[in-house]
Design a protein that fits this description.
- About 70% of the residues lie in helices and about 0% in strands.
- The protein is mainly α.
- The chain is globular.
């Protein structure tokens, strides 16, 4: 009896220590975001303040982002980024799902060499190729005018198929007996893919959608290389970066904080809409 009581006491103490540690880590992570949120409501200019929290609060910073477009047109940047992110997300998700299905469920001659080659290429950071990518796009006439958004969509989605390993690993856990049963019922490969495999991959599809959407939404390097100084096609990453340049930072710093808060909203909405699918795994398959 005493031994059991002692074990429960040690377990309770370990749980308390774990929760305290997690709370401390959570606070450390949230403090910068809380400070940024509070600064977005600060009434005033300048990047240096004497107190942690503002003394006066206002919505003028958010209002100025959408009304003062003489120097930095934040609404246009927001729309540019949203359009690029949506198209890149759709194309990238389809490519990853297709490649993952082909490598997981189908057998073909160059399957293993392709997977090994893709793994080796994936060891190198993507920005190492940005100069070559830029000159290829320039040779195709895709770095000027209205073709700039098309270039960014191509950059963010063209190589998405190489990131199939996580999705493939999940598809490998799906019993092949389901595919065989569907084939016996007369299903084609496409029907097996869309009516059997995809419904079972909902949690991973949600993960892929979120990551594919976030990549163009937060990217700075490729956007800066391709867009250069063409402000009409700036994304929010370039816009926020310009707000911190020395000629604008005094006036635009508090607006930068407001813009950083607004940038987080689409990703948060996307996550809230799709989070229910994280709980779905082996349910929802329709055999036909």
């Amino acid at each position: 009896m005493k031994k059991n009581s002692s074990m429960r006491g040690r377990k309770r103490l370990a749980d308390i220590i774990t929760y305290v540690f997690l709370i401390v880590v959570c606070v450390i992570w949230l403090v910068p975001f809380f400070w940024l949120l509070m600064q977005s409501f600060r009434d005033g200019k300048g990047q240096f303040i004497s107190t942690f929290l503002p003394k006066t609060y206002t919505f003028n910073n958010y209002k100025a982002l959408f009304t003062d477009s003489a120097v930095i047109n934040f609404p246009r940047m927001f729309v540019n980024t949203l359009v690029i992110a949506i198209f890149s997300c759709a194309i990238s998700t389809f490519l990853v799902l297709s490649v993952s299905y082909c490598t997981s469920r189908l057998k073909w001659k160059m399957r293993k060499p392709y997977m090994n080659m893709t793994m080796v290429i994936g060891l190198f950071p993507g920005f190492m190729s940005m100069v070559a990518v830029y000159f290829i796009l320039k040779a195709l006439g895709l770095t000027e005018g209205a073709m700039i958004p098309v270039s960014l969509v191509l950059v963010y989605s063209a190589g998405a198929g190489a990131g199939f390993y996580v999705m493939k690993g999940y598809m490998d856990t799906i019993p092949r007996a389901l595919d065989e049963a569907a084939a016996l019922d007369g299903c084609t490969r496409w029907q097996v893919f869309t009516k059997i495999t995809l419904p079972l991959c909902k949690p991973m599809i949600v993960y892929q959608i979120i990551t594919s959407f976030m990549a163009p939404w937060v990217d700075f390097v490729f956007a800066k290389v391709i867009i250069r100084t063409n402000s009409r096609y700036f994304t929010v990453a370039l816009g926020l970066w310009n707000m911190l340049e020395k000629e604008y930072v005094d006036t635009w710093f508090v607006r930068f904080c407001a813009g950083a808060v607004l940038v987080a909203i689409p990703i948060s909405i996307l996550f809230m809409i799709t989070q229910k699918y994280y709980r779905e795994a082996m349910s929802g398959s329709v055999k036909g």
